[in-house]
Amino acid sequence: PALRLRAVAMLACWLCLAALPPAMAADQYRTGPVPDWVITLEPDVAAPTPADQISGGVYYLLSDSQYRGAPGAPVYFSRYATRATQTEGLESVAHITIDFDPTFQTLTLHAVDILRDGRRIAKLADTEVRLIQREQERDLRIYDGRKTATLFLDDVRVGDVVDYSYSVQG
After folding, report:
1. Considering only CA atoms, which of 82, 81, 104 is closest in space to residue 21?
2. How far is CA 52 from CA 27, 43, 59, 89, in A?
3. Highest mean pLDDT: which of 26-30, 49-53, 142-146?
């Protein structure tokens, strides 16, 4: 009887946890493939970099945002490819930030790659993702629950392209 009672209690706890909305997993993110509805665009890494489009040592090769509206579960897909053209742009290119609100949104990281000398170096698996509570108006005692996923890539060099994509659902 005690063993059966324990099993029923464990099952009840598991069912309660399984029924929790994603907002309860506020410090969570996941990795996964690009959604099948996304139209994939590729940055032209071989194209010459126009000097008049460089800002702070950074050139944007691709800035792609796609949206899929679905009742109760809209999804925003984003992909960026940036090149560090000078030393001053390395930190900006190597530091990725993604804002989302875990009370109603789910973040999925699809890829974080470095494109160097015609090679694609996958970095998502070995890059630490930190979730930071961003309360920009805390001095006014306004707390909105938004978080920022922050990734710092190591070994980014001048001339490298950092290519990353993610989705925010909700």
Report:
1. 104
2. 40, 18, 10, 15
3. 49-53
| Per-residue model confidence (pLDDT) at position 19 | 36
**Confidence tier at 87 by pLDDT (50, 70, 90):** very high
* Maximum pairwise Cα distance, the chain: 77
What is the residue type of 121?
Answer: I
pLDDT beyond 80 at 9: no
Of 150, 108, 111, nearest to 131 (Cα)?
150
Summary count for the chain: helices (H), strands (E): 2, 9
By C-alpha distance, which of 42, 33, 39, 168 is closest to 110? 33
pLDDT reported for residue 134: 66
Rounded (5°) CA angle 118-122-123: 125
Q: What angle do CA 132, 101, 42 make, to 5 degrees?
A: 90
**How far is Cα 149 from Cα 132, in angstroms, rounded to an integer?**
6
Q: Does an H or E element contain 18, and which?
A: helix 2-18
In this predicted model, which residue has the larger pLDDT, 119 or 28? Answer: 119
CA dihedral 81, 77, 125, 95 (to 10 degrees): 50
